[in-house]
Amino acid sequence: MIRVGSVPYLNAKPMVDWFHTPDCDSPVEITYAVPSRLAEMLREGSLDVANVSIFETLQNPDLVLIPNISISACGAVKSVRLFSKKPLEEIQSVALDTSSLTSNALLRILLKEQFGITPCYQHHAPDLYAMLEKHDAGLIIGDLKLFDGLPETIVYDLGQGWHDLTQLPFVYAAWSARRECVSAEMCAVLRRAMDWGNAHLEELAATWAERWNLPPDLAHDYLVHVMDYRLSPLQLEGLRLYQQKCVEHGLIAERNPLQIFEV
């Protein structure tokens, strides 16, 4: 039995929905939780592998990346955004989504390097209206229902910000396994799930748009055109640059070599 953890967001559905089909013949126990909780569960040993925030993989030397699969985007990602009541260069306080690890660190990097600011940051439950009552801006991840933004807010897409800064794609999450649990069999199971998902992107977009009351065209564009599930050399370049910047900004203590399992 492989104990698998997954985020409950649309972008992960192509990676995990195979596990809920009759086609799945692999013994898997799947748990859904927000990225920050998945990181805790991996550390506790209650999961073997999870599509966890890449930030956790960079700071936890006990995790090993599964090759060739990620949750990435090149440019605007549309589900990781900062909503601000002020021009970005004037922001003084930011509420950070407690669900997030990777995007919280990414925002700190982008606001410093793109806008020259280091605002006051405070973690907050992902309620944008409550965030903006007390702060100039709020970071929300994984909520496509906010596709229109809010009146009188500036919407800053972190994926676009990263691409503008580096000209590279950004890796938000990947399958990361506990070192003592990773195996070629695990990699093969996750690869089969991903292959099934890639073959059913349009169907998954339609299914989850209906279940979650999302605009069908938005869900389709997101899964088919925005998301990239590879972990290519270019994505690894972007990932290593993010790791470097996390160290430079004091967000992780040291730059450990990325550990990628060799099948």
- Average pLDDT level: 93
Instruction: Provide a count of the helices.
Output: 10
Query: How many beta-strand segments?
Result: 10
Major sheet details: 5 strands, mixed
- Beta-strand content estimate: 15-25%
Order of helices and strands: EHEHEHEEEHEHEEHEHHHH
Strand order of the largest sheet: 2-1-3-10-4
| Radius of gyration from CA coordinates | 18 Å
**What share of residues is helical?**
25-40%
Secondary structure category:
alpha/beta
Stretches where pLDDT is under 50 for at least 5 consecutive residues are none
What does this protein structure show overall?
This protein is an alpha/beta fold and 263 residues long. 40% of the residues lie in helices and 22% in strands. The chain has ten helices and ten strands. The strands form two sheets. Strands 2-1-3-10-4 form a five-stranded mixed β-sheet, with helices on both faces. Strands 7-6-8-5-9 form a five-stranded mixed β-sheet, with helices on both faces. Strand 6, helix 4 and strand 7 form a beta-alpha-beta unit. It is globular and about 55 Å long. The mean pLDDT is 93.
